[in-house]
Amino acid sequence: MISTKGRYALRVIVDLAEHQQGEEYIPLKDIAARQEISEKYLEIILKVLVKEKLLKGLRGKGSGYRLTRSPKDYPIGEILSLTEGTLAPVACLTENADPCERSETCPTLRMWQRFDNLTHDFFYTITVADLMDGGERIK
Fold first, then answer.
1. Which residues are within 8 A (CB) of 67 and not within 5 positions of it... i.e. 6 or more apart?
2. Interval 114-120 mean pLDDT
3. Which one-letter DSSP state was computed for residue 93?
4. Average pLDDT over every residue of 26-36
5. Region at 128 (left for phi over 0; alpha for psi -120 to 50; beta for the rest)
C-alpha cells in the first residue's frame, strides 16, 4: 500500500508543476493550503525531495520550492521509490535483501517477480506531466 507520504509527494510535485512559472519559488504555505496538507508534515516530505534533488528549496526572502526539471522528466516510480523506500511486494525482492534460502524451490517467487516488474513498469512509464490536468493523459 502506498502511504500518505508517497501520495502527498505526488500531489505536491504535480501542484508545483501546475503553478510554477519560470524560475520562481512557490511558498510552502501556498502548497499546503492548496493541497490541504499540514505545513509541518509537508516540510518532512519536501526535505526528502530536496535532498534527492527532485526539488530546489530556497530559504529567506522569496522562500519556497520549485521543480528542478520538466514535469515530463519525473517518472512517478522515482518519486514513490524515494518516499516509500521500496515498491517491492515482498521482502526478498527489495534492494540489498539477504539471499533467500528457499528461492530455488519457492513456488511463488516467479509470481512476485512478475508482479514487481509490472508495478515498476507501470509507475516508471507515467510522469508528472501525465498527471497534470487530472490525469487525462493516462491511458
1. 13, 16, 17, 20, 54, 55, 56, 74
2. 95
3. G
4. 97
5. alpha
